[in-house]
Specification:
Helix content: 10-25%
Number of helices: 3
Radius of gyration: 17 Å
Shape: globular
Structural class: mainly beta
Largest sheet: 12 strands, mixed
């Protein structure tokens, strides 16, 4: 019997988990801003709990060539999210998410298009979240809707290791990015100014952000869309 994926409630704390195939590599905790036909919106605060996969000597995947990384014994390391606050839109059944960034004075700074496999939603006891797989290639979109590819070098380097690399259709990844670039250039949603004035609720910073029990559970694979 098919299981319907959950719909999340505003104010709910969920885990945003990224995998490479079935290996968990990154976890952050965020608060649900909204969840409707436009997609799931999540706010992830700077300093919130996180976990990232590291080598035994404390290096990450970007701290060494990929040829060296795939020889390492790695482990998940608890940490705090070191980047800025993120407002994230995860549209339904699309191979990307879009992130909004603001500068320290609160001015809108950029959109970030994260190319990734469509996520799967899950709820399990006290925990809930989304599981996905990052596909490395990304796009920065400036407020004037100028844009630039990001991490093309990482994609090309890792494609040389098809037995170990989780991106198996680089052309499809780039095609998804090119569709988003056209939307950005045309000023279409979500690059039309929607949510550029977003501000987190002050009370959210006092929420009990945590990696809930089972945060490292096996990956949940895609099922039917929420209804």
């Amino acid at each position: 019997m098919d299981h319907v994926e959950p719909v999340f409630e505003p104010g709910e704390l969920i885990l945003h988990r990224m995998f490479t195939d079935d290996e968990l590599v990154f976890v952050r905790c965020g608060v649900v801003v909204g969840d409707d036909e436009r997609g799931l919106r999540v706010w992830i605060p700077n300093g919130g709990p996180a976990a990232v996969r590291m080598s035994e000597d404390g290096r990450g995947i970007r701290d060494m060539p990929f040829a060296e990384w795939i020889t390492q014994r790695t482990l998940l390391t608890r940490t705090a999210w070191w980047g800025p606050d993120i407002f994230m839109l995860i549209p339904p059944d699309r191979a990307h998410s879009v992130w909004w960034f603001w500068d320290r004075r609160g001015g809108f700074d950029a959109w970030y298009v994260n190319l990734e496999e469509p996520v799967t939603r899950w709820r399990d006891g006290a925990g809930a979240g989304v599981d996905g797989c990052d596909q490395d290639l990304d796009i920065w979109v400036r407020p004037d809707r100028g844009w630039a590819w990001k991490d093309e070098d990482e994609l090309e380097e890792r494609l040389a290791f098809p037995d170990r690399y989780w991106v198996r259709d680089a052309a499809a990844v780039r095609a998804e990015g090119e569709r988003l670039i056209k939307d950005a250039e045309a000023g279409l949603f979500p690059f039309d100014g929607t949510w550029r004035d977003f501000r987190p609720e002050p009370a959210w910073r006092a929420l009990p952000f945590d990696l809930t029990p089972g945060w490292d559970r096996p990956r949940t694979h895609r099922r039917r869309r929420p209804v």
